[in-house]
């Protein structure tokens, strides 16, 4: 371990994770306050409707948006490292154009489909206008260009600061809705305004930093013309979009599947358990966000980025084991105190899902290593295969065993993802000598 921390890159990864963690820790506490206020201020059925409306919009955004931050980090980082600012600008311009196009398309499709899907998800006709209006957030949710630009420019401190905005406003708005007894409409408005403000703040930070680096023209959107100067641009973004659409939709679609099979009350309980579990996995997510930009500055043909991934995975896995114990012994009191006795059934579900924590945290470097190696198609195939297995298990086991079946399916799905990602990562490591590190030569 002493040798690990002697590695400057490893220390940088931990530093960036620490910056992000400071914001996430505060955000998690404020997010729990918001859920607690909603849980106590609404009936279980209405709480479930609130969660379904929110997850429908986030699910729509997750499905249609391109993971342009991956593209920016993968290609703008080495470009800036080698002094090619024009190429870095083109990469960001291309990503921004995709963000705009996919966000508007996703909003229109989500609004158009909702009247036909609302009944299946348990959204009554009286709440349909609220749900349609909530879909206005889909374009602002496609903020990957802003996030990717700040990561490339090493401004993780600004990302950490932004992470507090949405949960702070959501917690405050939920408290007002609870104390003033504003009902479901008040809570929906609190969620909506908080999400909107958080996204706009992130874009504001990105604009400021790009202006400081004399790169503000990078936010002039471009797609087809710019793509001609970027070899394999479309191939990369389509592949990573498909892979991350599958991954991003995992949580929202799981909630919708549970809602369809078991109803809004069960969906609310599932949301509580999955939210607590998601909060517990944040350390791995923070390490991944700090890890990916750093390995893009290293030569993948050497063992250094791969060894860094092993060290980061072992560290995160160890933290995950400790978090599992904390959740097992502390989850029930937290749910009882925050949400009340009527939501204690969520703890039984959480107890089944929590064992996936250590697995998720220990294997977080795999996806980043595959992108570094240019194996994004292998990552896509792995994600799709694992998700198909997961949703088949989710539908079957939820029908047979209710919420407990959903928890078992979540654990088995996590194991499937880890195995499917590990195999191509090992193959890429063995073939690392063939990986080209320097940026591609732009087309004339």
UniProtKB/TrEMBL annotation:
Tagged with keyword Transmembrane: yes
First-listed, main subcellular location of the protein, grouped into a coarse class: membrane
Topology in the lipid bilayer: Multi-pass membrane protein
Record-linked InterPro entries: Poly_Biosynth_Transport (IPR050833)
Alphabetized UniProt keyword annotations: Cell membrane, Membrane, Transmembrane, Transmembrane helix
Spans traversing the lipid bilayer: 12-36, 42-64, 94-121, 127-146, 306-329, 349-366, 378-401, 407-429
Top-level taxon: Bacteria
UniProt-annotated location(s): Cell membrane
GO cellular component: plasma membrane
Keyword Membrane in record: yes
Name of this chain's protein: Lipopolysaccharide biosynthesis protein
Organism: Sphingomonas aliaeris
């Amino acid at each position: 371990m002493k040798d690990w921390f002697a590695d400057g890159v490893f220390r940088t990864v931990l530093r960036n994770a620490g910056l992000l963690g400071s914001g996430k820790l505060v955000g998690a506490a404020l997010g729990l306050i918001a859920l607690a206020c909603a849980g106590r201020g609404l009936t279980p059925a209405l709480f479930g409707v609130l969660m379904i409306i929110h997850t429908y919009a986030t699910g729509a955004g997750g499905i249609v948006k391109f993971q342009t931050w991956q593209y920016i980090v993968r290609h703008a980082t080495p470009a800036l490292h080698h002094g090619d600012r024009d190429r870095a600008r083109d990469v960001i311009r291309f990503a921004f154009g995709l963000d705009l196009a996919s966000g508007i398309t996703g909003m229109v499709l989500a609004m158009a489909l909702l009247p036909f899907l609302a009944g299946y998800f348990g959204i009554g006709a009286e709440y349909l206008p609220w749900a349609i209006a909530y879909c206005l957030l889909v374009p602002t949710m496609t903020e990957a260009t802003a996030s990717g630009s700040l990561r490339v420019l090493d401004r993780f401190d600004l990302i950490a600061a932004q992470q507090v905005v949405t949960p702070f406003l959501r917690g405050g708005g939920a408290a007002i809705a609870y104390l003033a007894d504003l009902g479901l409409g008040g809570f929906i408005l609190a969620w909506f305004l908080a999400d909107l403000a958080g996204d706009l703040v992130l874009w504001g930070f990105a604009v400021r930093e790009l202006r400081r680096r004399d790169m503000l023209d990078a936010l002039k959107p471009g797609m087809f013309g710019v793509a001609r100067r970027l070899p394999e641009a479309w191939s990369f973004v389509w592949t990573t979009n498909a892979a991350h659409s599958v991954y991003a939709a995992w949580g929202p679609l799981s909630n919708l599947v549970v809602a369809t099979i078991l109803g809004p009350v069960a969906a609310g309980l599932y949301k509580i358990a999955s939210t607590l579990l998601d909060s517990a996995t944040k350390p791995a997510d923070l390490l991944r966000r700090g890890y990916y930009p750093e390995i893009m500055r290293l030569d993948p043909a050497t063992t250094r980025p791969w060894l860094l991934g092993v060290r980061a995975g072992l560290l995160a896995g160890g933290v995950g084991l400790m978090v599992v114990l904390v959740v097992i012994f502390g989850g029930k009191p937290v749910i009882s105190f925050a949400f009340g006795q009527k939501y204690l059934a969520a703890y039984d579900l959480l107890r089944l899902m929590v064992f996936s924590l250590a697995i998720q945290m220990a294997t977080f470097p795999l996806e980043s290593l595959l992108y570094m190696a240019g194996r994004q198609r292998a990552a896509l195939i792995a994600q799709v295969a694992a998700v198909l297995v997961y949703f088949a298990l989710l539908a079957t086991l939820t029908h047979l065993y209710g919420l407990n079946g959903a928890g078992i399916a979540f654990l088995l799905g996590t194991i499937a993802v880890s195995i499917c990602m590990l195999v191509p990562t090992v193959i890429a490591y063995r073939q690392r000598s063939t990986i080209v590190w320097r940026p591609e030569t732009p087309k004339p």
